[in-house]
Amino acid sequence: MSDFHRAASGGLSPGELEAVLRQVGAERYHNRHPYHHRMTGGDLSKGELQAWALNRYCYQAVIPRKDAAILTHAEDPAFRAEWRKRIEDHDGEDGWSGGIARWLHLATSLGVDADAVKSQRLALPATRFAVGAYLAFCFERSLLEAVASSLTELFSPVIINERVPAMLAKYDYVTADTLAYFTRRPEQAARDSDFALAYVRKHADTPERQQQVIDALVFKCDILWAMLDALQHAYGEGGGNIPPGAFRPEA
Amino acid sequence: MSDFHRAASGGLSPGELEAVLRQVGAERYHNRHPYHHRMTGGDLSKGELQAWALNRYCYQAVIPRKDAAILTHAEDPAFRAEWRKRIEDHDGEDGWSGGIARWLHLATSLGVDADAVKSQRLALPATRFAVGAYLAFCFERSLLEAVASSLTELFSPVIINERVPAMLAKYDYVTADTLAYFTRRPEQAARDSDFALAYVRKHADTPERQQQVIDALVFKCDILWAMLDALQHAYGEGGGNIPPGAFRPEA
């Protein structure tokens, strides 16, 4: 395990910085988490998949808001024109024809009630705290740090390519229709992460800023990891640790 | 398990509201959490106690800041004069002679390095997200809601009376000096919670405000519960789920 807290102390070239960022992903992205491994191994109960979809909805639902927070810091119209595509992707034409609606469809296809998902009331408190920390980060930190925190998208093709074929093969109630969300994401993520990576390579031009972007990506990996930790703790091993008031799968 | 989401729909007398708030504590305060039960049962390893102290420090350290956030909303000088005692209690005369210093002493007495504790760098991300959510709540919500979120102190004498004698009896390396933090707390907490409860009883004078204070106390119980969930998941069962970068007890 690398100590990323002093990774940029000497100043890095753009290529070296990118290599450190990719190393962060290799060590800390949530495709290394046991819950993901249990998902792709076919070992999750239907209740655990439902809990995953219901909790992850909170993350999906906040994406356009965190991207709007980033727009509030962006003074360059060309940057904003590029970045606002992310909001359009998730909200769609009318708010309910983009990525959030497709994630809701994923959850309801797994048998979770749409209103329960949308209200977010049954999500784990730990999920809400993690998602809230992500939104606050994009409000409070510099534009550069907020952009860098989006760079987990560099690694999302990996996890999607692990997740989708495995889910179709291992869970007979999961269909291509269930997972329609993921068919759009790789192309969008590649476009978005290319832009964000080029921005970070260009603007992280001091050791201090380089350390900030590394820390931002570590932070974002912590968010995604903590969300799976919370699911594993609450719903793993029969659900004996579900906190008061959270979603309880039907027996 | 009660559904506190509609508890105040009809309007409650001050006494009825207090009864609902006490019911929230009876059902959701973290003295019901398995990690607390393992602590009082003498079943935590030294590493688990160290992790508890190190992570809980993040919560202790934010208390004066959340109380300052509450002061920013308080227009009544008499309210502020009462509430600022909380900041004095935790920071002490010079910043390091109050409750935070005593908590640091607790952690170092258990063998954790003081700088590691104070930097908060080795705390679980989930702990930081929960503590951050608490601080943000006190900034963003109404004065009434922020005051109500402090009412977990109503129940702290219960958990302290369970914790302290059990820790002294069950862990031979824990002494009265280790636990000096707790000798001051019951008197402070009683004074503070009496004031906060009287404030809430007086100002939660519509069904909507009553529901807000109930929700605020549920939220705060969720914070404390999520912190123990994170410890249990990471450090229970031999520490196999410690997330990347977090505190690792010596073998």
TrEMBL record, chains A, B:
Top EC category: oxidoreductase
InterPro entries linked to this entry: Haem_Oase-like_multi-hlx, PqqC, PqqC-like, Thiaminase-2/PQQC
Keyword Oxidoreductase found: yes
A GO BP entry: pyrroloquinoline quinone biosynthetic process
Molecular function, one GO term: pyrroloquinoline-quinone synthase activity
Domain Thiaminase-2/PQQC: 21-229
Recorded metabolic or biological pathway in which this protein acts: Cofactor biosynthesis; pyrroloquinoline quinone biosynthesis
Catalytic activity: 6-(2-amino-2-carboxyethyl)-7,8-dioxo-1,2,3,4,7,8-hexahydroquinoline-2,4-dicarboxylate + 3 O2 = pyrroloquinoline quinone + 2 H2O2 + 2 H2O + H(+)
Keyword Ligase belongs to the record: no
EC number: 1.3.3.11
Pfam (any one): TENA_THI-4
Keywords annotated in UniProt: Oxidoreductase, PQQ biosynthesis
Function comment: Ring cyclization and eight-electron oxidation of 3a-(2-amino-2-carboxyethyl)-4,5-dioxo-4,5,6,7,8,9-hexahydroquinoline-7,9-dicarboxylic-acid to PQQ.
HAMAP family: PQQ_syn_PqqC (MF_00654)
Family of the protein in this entry: Belongs to the PqqC family.
Protein name: Pyrroloquinoline-quinone synthase
Organism name: Manganibacter manganicus
